[in-house]
Design brief:
The protein is of the alpha+beta class. It has 2 domains: 3-27 and 107-184, Ribosome-recycling factor (Topoisomerase I, Chain A, domain 4, Orthogonal Bundle); 35-102, Gyrase A, domain 2 (2-Layer Sandwich), CATH 3.30.1360.40. The chain is 58% helix and 16% strand. It contains 4 helices and 6 strands. α1 packs parallel to α4 (151-184). The longest helix is centred in the C-terminal third of the chain and has 38 residues, at 108-145. The radius of gyration is 22 Å and the shape is elongated. The model has no long low-confidence stretch (mean pLDDT 88). Residues 133-167 form a coiled coil.
Length: 186
Protein backbone atom coordinates (compact mmCIF):
# COMPACT_ATOMS: atom_id res chain seq x y z
CA UNK A 1 0.00 0.00 0.00
CA UNK A 2 1.36 3.42 -0.89
CA UNK A 3 1.06 6.72 0.98
CA UNK A 4 -1.44 8.02 -1.58
CA UNK A 5 -3.63 4.93 -1.06
CA UNK A 6 -3.50 5.39 2.73
CA UNK A 7 -4.62 9.02 2.38
CA UNK A 8 -7.36 8.15 -0.09
CA UNK A 9 -8.69 5.27 2.02
CA UNK A 10 -8.67 7.39 5.18
CA UNK A 11 -10.50 10.25 3.47
CA UNK A 12 -13.09 7.85 2.07
CA UNK A 13 -13.71 6.31 5.51
CA UNK A 14 -14.00 9.76 7.09
CA UNK A 15 -16.59 10.74 4.46
CA UNK A 16 -18.53 7.56 5.30
CA UNK A 17 -18.45 8.53 8.99
CA UNK A 18 -19.82 11.98 8.11
CA UNK A 19 -22.61 10.38 6.08
CA UNK A 20 -23.48 8.10 8.99
CA UNK A 21 -23.61 11.16 11.27
CA UNK A 22 -25.95 12.96 8.85
CA UNK A 23 -28.27 9.94 8.86
CA UNK A 24 -28.18 9.73 12.66
CA UNK A 25 -28.88 13.45 13.05
CA UNK A 26 -31.81 13.22 10.64
CA UNK A 27 -33.42 10.75 13.02
CA UNK A 28 -33.43 13.30 15.83
CA UNK A 29 -36.80 14.86 15.34
CA UNK A 30 -37.66 18.51 15.56
CA UNK A 31 -41.38 18.20 16.28
CA UNK A 32 -42.47 17.50 12.71
CA UNK A 33 -43.17 14.01 11.48
CA UNK A 34 -41.14 12.45 8.67
CA UNK A 35 -41.24 8.88 7.43
CA UNK A 36 -37.52 8.29 8.01
CA UNK A 37 -38.09 8.68 11.74
CA UNK A 38 -38.95 5.01 12.23
CA UNK A 39 -36.19 3.59 9.99
CA UNK A 40 -34.06 2.30 12.86
CA UNK A 41 -36.96 0.85 14.91
CA UNK A 42 -36.68 -2.94 14.86
CA UNK A 43 -39.64 -5.33 15.21
CA UNK A 44 -39.66 -9.08 15.89
CA UNK A 45 -40.80 -10.79 12.68
CA UNK A 46 -40.77 -14.58 12.91
CA UNK A 47 -37.85 -14.66 15.36
CA UNK A 48 -35.69 -12.15 13.47
CA UNK A 49 -35.39 -8.42 14.07
CA UNK A 50 -36.25 -6.33 10.99
CA UNK A 51 -36.88 -2.60 10.46
CA UNK A 52 -40.51 -1.48 10.70
CA UNK A 53 -40.49 -0.23 7.10
CA UNK A 54 -39.98 -3.82 5.85
CA UNK A 55 -43.21 -5.08 7.47
CA UNK A 56 -45.38 -1.98 7.17
CA UNK A 57 -46.12 1.03 4.98
CA UNK A 58 -45.23 4.30 6.73
CA UNK A 59 -47.05 7.44 5.57
CA UNK A 60 -47.57 11.01 6.70
CA UNK A 61 -51.15 11.58 7.83
CA UNK A 62 -50.43 15.23 8.59
CA UNK A 63 -47.40 17.30 9.58
CA UNK A 64 -47.43 15.97 13.15
CA UNK A 65 -48.74 12.40 12.67
CA UNK A 66 -47.33 9.26 11.07
CA UNK A 67 -49.50 6.40 9.86
CA UNK A 68 -48.12 2.86 10.02
CA UNK A 69 -50.13 0.37 7.92
CA UNK A 70 -48.97 -3.13 8.87
CA UNK A 71 -49.15 -5.72 6.09
CA UNK A 72 -49.94 -8.63 8.43
CA UNK A 73 -52.64 -7.98 11.05
CA UNK A 74 -50.91 -10.18 13.61
CA UNK A 75 -47.87 -7.89 13.59
CA UNK A 76 -49.75 -4.72 14.60
CA UNK A 77 -49.29 -5.19 18.38
CA UNK A 78 -45.59 -6.02 17.91
CA UNK A 79 -45.01 -2.95 15.73
CA UNK A 80 -46.88 -0.74 18.19
CA UNK A 81 -44.78 -2.10 21.09
CA UNK A 82 -41.54 -1.67 19.12
CA UNK A 83 -42.37 1.99 18.41
CA UNK A 84 -43.35 2.60 22.03
CA UNK A 85 -40.17 0.92 23.36
CA UNK A 86 -37.85 2.80 20.98
CA UNK A 87 -35.75 5.71 22.24
CA UNK A 88 -37.87 8.19 20.28
CA UNK A 89 -40.36 8.92 23.08
CA UNK A 90 -43.40 8.23 20.88
CA UNK A 91 -46.79 6.92 22.00
CA UNK A 92 -48.53 5.12 19.09
CA UNK A 93 -52.28 4.50 19.08
CA UNK A 94 -53.83 1.58 17.22
CA UNK A 95 -56.95 2.13 15.12
CA UNK A 96 -57.75 -1.24 13.65
CA UNK A 97 -55.08 -2.00 11.04
CA UNK A 98 -53.65 1.52 11.14
CA UNK A 99 -51.26 2.62 13.86
CA UNK A 100 -51.24 6.39 14.36
CA UNK A 101 -48.01 7.85 15.74
CA UNK A 102 -48.55 11.46 16.88
CA UNK A 103 -45.49 13.64 17.42
CA UNK A 104 -45.66 15.25 20.86
CA UNK A 105 -44.88 18.96 21.04
CA UNK A 106 -41.32 19.63 22.06
CA UNK A 107 -40.94 21.14 25.51
CA UNK A 108 -37.84 23.04 26.58
CA UNK A 109 -36.73 20.03 28.63
CA UNK A 110 -37.22 17.65 25.69
CA UNK A 111 -35.25 20.00 23.44
CA UNK A 112 -32.37 19.93 25.93
CA UNK A 113 -32.52 16.13 26.03
CA UNK A 114 -32.42 15.98 22.22
CA UNK A 115 -29.41 18.30 22.17
CA UNK A 116 -27.65 15.89 24.53
CA UNK A 117 -28.42 13.05 22.10
CA UNK A 118 -27.06 15.12 19.19
CA UNK A 119 -23.95 16.01 21.19
CA UNK A 120 -23.35 12.31 21.90
CA UNK A 121 -23.77 11.37 18.22
CA UNK A 122 -21.28 14.08 17.22
CA UNK A 123 -18.79 12.92 19.83
CA UNK A 124 -19.06 9.36 18.49
CA UNK A 125 -18.30 10.73 15.00
CA UNK A 126 -15.28 12.68 16.32
CA UNK A 127 -13.93 9.55 18.02
CA UNK A 128 -14.39 7.63 14.76
CA UNK A 129 -12.36 10.30 12.92
CA UNK A 130 -9.59 10.09 15.52
CA UNK A 131 -9.54 6.30 15.28
CA UNK A 132 -9.21 6.53 11.50
CA UNK A 133 -6.31 8.97 11.95
CA UNK A 134 -4.63 6.58 14.40
CA UNK A 135 -5.04 3.65 12.00
CA UNK A 136 -3.66 5.68 9.08
CA UNK A 137 -0.66 6.79 11.12
CA UNK A 138 0.01 3.18 12.17
CA UNK A 139 -0.09 2.12 8.52
CA UNK A 140 2.35 4.92 7.65
CA UNK A 141 4.72 3.77 10.40
CA UNK A 142 4.53 0.23 9.01
CA UNK A 143 5.44 1.57 5.55
CA UNK A 144 8.42 3.35 7.10
CA UNK A 145 9.54 0.17 8.94
CA UNK A 146 9.30 -1.80 5.70
CA UNK A 147 11.37 0.93 4.05
CA UNK A 148 8.67 1.61 1.44
CA UNK A 149 8.83 5.35 2.14
CA UNK A 150 11.28 7.85 3.60
CA UNK A 151 10.93 9.50 7.02
CA UNK A 152 10.21 12.86 5.36
CA UNK A 153 7.43 11.35 3.24
CA UNK A 154 5.97 9.66 6.31
CA UNK A 155 6.06 12.93 8.30
CA UNK A 156 4.39 14.87 5.44
CA UNK A 157 1.74 12.18 5.10
CA UNK A 158 1.04 12.31 8.85
CA UNK A 159 0.62 16.09 8.59
CA UNK A 160 -1.78 15.62 5.67
CA UNK A 161 -3.77 13.03 7.63
CA UNK A 162 -3.94 15.47 10.58
CA UNK A 163 -5.23 18.25 8.30
CA UNK A 164 -7.80 15.83 6.88
CA UNK A 165 -8.91 14.88 10.39
CA UNK A 166 -9.15 18.54 11.45
CA UNK A 167 -11.26 19.36 8.40
CA UNK A 168 -13.70 16.49 9.05
CA UNK A 169 -13.95 17.25 12.78
CA UNK A 170 -14.77 20.87 11.88
CA UNK A 171 -17.55 19.56 9.62
CA UNK A 172 -18.92 17.50 12.53
CA UNK A 173 -18.89 20.64 14.70
CA UNK A 174 -20.69 22.57 11.97
CA UNK A 175 -23.39 19.91 11.70
CA UNK A 176 -23.81 19.96 15.49
CA UNK A 177 -24.26 23.74 15.50
CA UNK A 178 -26.87 23.51 12.71
CA UNK A 179 -28.85 20.77 14.45
CA UNK A 180 -28.68 22.59 17.79
CA UNK A 181 -30.04 25.78 16.21
CA UNK A 182 -32.77 23.75 14.48
CA UNK A 183 -33.81 22.11 17.76
CA UNK A 184 -33.86 25.33 19.75
CA UNK A 185 -35.94 27.21 17.16
CA UNK A 186 -39.51 27.39 18.40
Amino acid sequence: MSIAEVKKTTEHKMQKSLEALRVDLAKVRTGRAHIGLLDHVQVDYYDSMVPVNTVANITLIDSRTLGVQVWEKTLAPKVEKAIRDSDLGLNPASQGELIRVPMPALTEERRRDLIKVVKHECEVARVAMRNLRRDANATLKDLLKQKECSEDDERRAQDDIQKLTDRHVAEVDKQFAQKEAELMAV
